[in-house]
Amino acid sequence: MDEAWYDDEAGPIVRPYTITRGRTSGNHHTRLDTATQVITAEPRPEAPRLELTPEHRMILDACMRPVSLAELSVMLTQPLGVVRVLCSDLLDHGAVFVRSPRTEVSRDILEQVYRGLCRL
To answer: I want to staple 63 with a disulfide (CB 3.0 to 4.6 A). Which of 34, 40, 47, 58 is the partner?
Structure first.
């Protein structure tokens, strides 16, 4: 019977759903994409309203320096959507800060990239 909930290649099937308590998005209004950098707030705030799971604690430990959501996903071996929800929880409670990449690309940046590629 246990075999129905476990796939040898994929691992536990239900686990990601249970980590986020069934949520597929966080409450925070900030857009978190794969390149968003997450860093732990110092000093770590006491967040009595937030029940820290082992995954939340791993994120806090991993983000002592800025780490992208994509990197966190690999470090935690969890899908990006799970990491996004957990980071949103931490962001809501002031335990982390996030920095999104620039979305605008100036002509100057494009010219620098072009010159760099030409040198190759």
So the answer is: 40
The 3-state DSSP class for residue 92 equals helix
pLDDT digits (tens, 9 = 90+) for 16-75: 666 666 565 666 667 788 888 898 887 655 555 567 888 888 999 999 999 999 999 999
CA angle 11/13/18 to nearest 5° reads: 115
Encoding tokens for residue 47? 């967040």
In 3D, which of 38, 43, 70 has the Cα closest to residue 56? 38
Helical ranges in the chain per DSSP H: 15-19, 54-62, 69-76, 80-92, 107-119
Task: Report the first-to-last Cα separation within the chain, whole angstroms.
Answer: 57
Q: What is the pTM of this model?
A: 0.65
Q: DSSP 3-state helix, strand, coil percentages of the chain (rounded to 5)? A: 45, 10, 45
What are the structure tokens assigned to 46, written together? 């006491």
